[in-house]
Design goal:
Layout lengths: L3 H24 L2 H6 L17 H4 L24 H8 L13 H15 L9 H13 L1 H5 L4 H21 L6 H17 L4 H18 L11 H20 L6 H17 L18 H9 L10 E2 L2 E6 L2 E6 L19 E5 L2 E5 L9 H7 L8 E3 L11 H7 L9 E8 L3 E8 L3 H4 L1 E10 L5 E9 L6 E9 L4 E4 L5 E7 L2 E7 L4 E8 L6 E12 L4 E9 L2
Antiparallel strand pairs: 1-2, 2-3, 3-4, 4-5, 5-11, 6-11, 7-8, 8-9, 9-10, 10-17, 11-16, 12-13, 13-14, 14-17, 15-16
Helix pairs in contact: 1-15, 6-8, 6-9, 8-9, 9-10, 9-11, 11-12
Length: 548
């Protein structure tokens, strides 16, 4: 049957791709590059705090001395496109020796402005260019220190030309993460140059529009990706701090979304101050963000137990994260991982049950596998993912690996008393293909931290036999062995600490799995309960408890 929505997105993708191709050809012309030239600013109105760059950079290399690198070959050493984008983004400025590398930096930048001052594909990619402007502006002290007049003029003109390029193209950018970078860069250029205050006004309007589009009422991204929450918050904070430093009024909408997002982060962080692995998140280092929060003496007290569609249960040092929400809409779903009813479980600060994590930085194949339902700690029918993803290359190129179908969450309920925490929810993601509703109930014992669960498969009609796989991915480093009897697993946390996973009247297996949460592939183990049903419903009772 013809899918009208898919046809619409296909032709829209063709249109957008054609326009992008035409634009790229035009960008390389002398006429376009001349259009980017405008009045050169006289000077910086103020110098932003350079240490704000450490807040947004994920550059992990150690400090290095550029004075030891030949400036003539500095721009020739990139081995692949990733390295090209990395080096031309200039985030590495945060790592140089600020006392002794100034002259070497000017030589390197002089060569850059000679070679790349006009549009060049990849090097003038919206994200790369935005990072470059942000890095340059936040490091202007060291860049211009004792620099000659001509160098200074070329540097200021280059910032404006690149900012003009961003202003011309921001409305055509379909990536939200690229757009917040572009806005930040334009905003900074409007703050530091009095002659281009209009850039600030443009950026504020675009920022307000983006905030209204991208965040829900609680300050969480509509992508349902905790990683996006961190990424956007960092850029929003940079914008706010620079506005304050420029002695301008911080817009109310910006203050509001930052405060709301901080509350979300406070309530979703794991016992180790990392992110739970849902919908594209990784276990990224949040050290600089935490340092900033501490330095500003921000006290976030509001408790929120439903964050971005993830139900969060906290008791002592034990946490449970429970995906109880529907997938995001197509335009927000490029990083969605199909894990309805999936859980992550921490006991006494130790992560026990995990989702596999997101493999976008590893390979397209790994990324695809990481998005499947089987890569999440939930139930799968007939080895089929609940959510289907777009297969069209042209749609994927424009909209990313967005979802093709959606589903509904049903009958969500949760409660808490002195001794227990309870939650339940169902989804109809398998109803169309297999006529089944999947339901999960979990109960957490507050005293022990033990986790009890029930998974049900409710068949709405008779039909063909259905295979099910109930998976619990164990966190790397945990060892697991099958016990005598076949229906329980011993999970070893440390020498003197272990758990028992048991399931009633079902056979349980140990399978190999992979963990991608740290942006690298690690081996881990998966507890699997396998079985089938024909014409009747299926109920699976399982438990994770401390070994006494």
């Amino acid at each position: 049957m013809l899918n009208i929505k898919s046809v619409y997105f296909y032709f829209l993708a063709v249109k957008i791709s054609s326009l992008k191709l035409i634009k790229k050809i035009y960008f390389s012309t002398n006429a376009y590059n001349r259009s980017l030239k405008s009045k050169t600013p006289q000077q910086f109105y103020f110098h932003p705090n350079p240490f704000l760059l450490s807040l947004i950079t994920d550059y992990k290399k150690n400090s290095f001395r550029i004075s030891e690198i030949d400036p003539n070959i500095f721009w020739l050493n990139q081995k692949n496109l990733k390295e090209v984008k990395e080096i031309h983004g200039f985030l590495w400025l945060n790592l140089i020796d600020r006392k002794s590398d100034g002259k070497s930096l000017q030589k390197i930048m002089r060569i850059w402005m000679l070679k790349y001052t006009n549009y060049k594909r990849n090097i003038w990619d919206n994200s790369v260019l935005s990072k470059r402007i942000i890095s340059w502006i936040l490091n202007v002290d060291i860049i211009l220190n004792n620099g000659f007049f001509e160098f200074k003029r070329n540097f200021l003109q280059s910032i404006i030309s690149q900012s003009n390029h961003l202003k011309k193209n921001i409305k055509f950018e379909d990536s939200f993460s690229n757009k917040i970078e572009m806005i930040t860069a334009i905003l900074l250029s409007g703050l530091v140059f009095k002659e281009y205050e209009e850039n600030y006004n443009v950026a504020i309007k675009e920022l307000e529009r983006l905030v209204k589009t991208f965040f829900d009422k609680d300050g969480f991204p509509l992508t349902r990706n905790p990683g996006d929450l961190i990424f956007f918050l960092k850029h929003l904070i940079v914008c706010k701090e620079c506005i304050k430093d420029a002695q301008k009024y911080v817009p109310d909408f910006l203050e509001s979304v930052i405060n709301k997002s901080l509350i979300c982060i406070k309530n979703i962080l794991t016992p180790h101050d990392k992110l739970p692995l849902f919908n594209g998140a990784t276990e990224e280092d949040l050290l600089q963000l935490n340092k900033f929060i501490v330095s500003k003496k921000l006290k976030i007290k509001e408790k929120k137990d439903l964050v971005g569609g993830i139900k969060v249960f906290k008791f002592k040092n034990s946490f449970v994260y429970f995906d109880v929400s529907e997938p995001p809409k197509k335009g927000f779903s490029r990083n969605y991982q199909s894990g309805p009813l999936s859980i992550e479980y921490y006991l006494d600060g130790n992560k026990i049950i995990t989702n596999c994590g997101f493999g976008s930085k590893l390979s397209s194949k790994i990324e695809f596998l990481s998005r499947l339902t089987s890569a999440q700690s939930t139930i799968t029918l007939n080895d089929t993912s609940v959510t289907k993803y777009e297969k069209s290359k042209i749609i994927k190129k424009v909209f990313g690996n967005s979802i093709k179908n959606s589903f509904k969450m049903l009958d969500f309920d949760s409660s808490e008393n002195e001794n227990q925490i309870f939650a339940k929810v169902s989804h109809n993601g398998y109803e169309r293909d297999f006529g089944c509703i999947c339901k999960r109930e979990i109960t957490i014992d507050k005293l022990s931290g033990n986790l009890l669960g029930t998974d049900e498969i409710l068949k709405k009609n008779d039909g063909k036999p259905i295979n099910f796989s109930l998976r619990f991915h164990l966190y790397p480093g945990l060892t697991a062995v099958k016990t005598i009897g076949g229906n329980s697993i011993l999970i070893q946390i440390s020498k003197n600490k272990s758990l028992i996973f048991s399931v009633k009247d079902e056979n349980v297996l140990l399978e190999k799995s992979i963990f991608l949460g740290g942006n690298k592939i690690l081996d881990n183990t998966c507890i699997s309960v396998l079985g089938n049903l024909v014409n009747k419903n299926k109920t699976i009772h399982w438990e994770i408890k401390k070994k006494i």
